[in-house]
Design brief:
The protein is an alpha+beta fold. 25% of the residues lie in helices and 28% in strands. The chain has a 6-stranded mixed β-sheet. Strands 1-2-3-4-5 form a 5-stranded mixed β-sheet, with helices on one face. The model has no long low-confidence stretch (mean pLDDT 96). Bound molecules: zinc ion (2 copies).
Amino acid sequence: MALHYTTLPVTPFAQNCSLLWCEQTREAALVDAGGEHERLLAEVAARGLTLKMLLVTHAHIDHAGAVGQLAREQGLPVVGPHVGDQFWIDGLAKQSAMFGFPPAEPFVPTRWLEDGDTVQLGQEVLAVRHCPGHTPGHVVFHSASAQRCFVGDVLFVGSIGRTDFPGGNHEQLLSSIRERLWPMGDEVVFIPGHGPEGTLGHERRTNPFLSHSRWG
Ligand SMILES: [Zn+2]
Ligand SMILES: [Zn+2]
């Protein structure tokens, strides 16, 4: 595959920031630069990559905390999330204070994403699916060529995203997973915002939130 990636857990929440790159062009993107921006930039430099954009699945502090500073200092476009997360972006300073994170710089996405959009990275194309439920504006990035999907806090190995935050919706999250993740294929490896990678097929069969029909 020509899309490569490495995952770098950042922040006290061990959020999986993924560094993606096109092997042909060595152009790179960071998915969910939640913090520790110097470490992320060091990784980009160590691999000899050219950082082209900042992708955002959703605007929780552990996923978006370093996006504003990186965008400003590196002159990078911010791509995503969906406009439904505007209120979370507006609340980043408050989120920083609440969780004891370094103050997050505000940012304005260069490009809001919609379901069905695509993002070009070098010669690679990422397909965007809107997956509301954890947050209203949550998006995921799917590489069909690499059989990988970067899903933020939609799905975890053995679990799903929390829906008890403002704008969260449990049924909507289940629908997002069933209608927008499962059709990518059982063999697709998903990279969640926290914890280990897994395959969609394994979760479809065994995830307790999704695999069993519910009674009563
Ligand atoms: Zn989240
Ligand atoms: Zn998270």
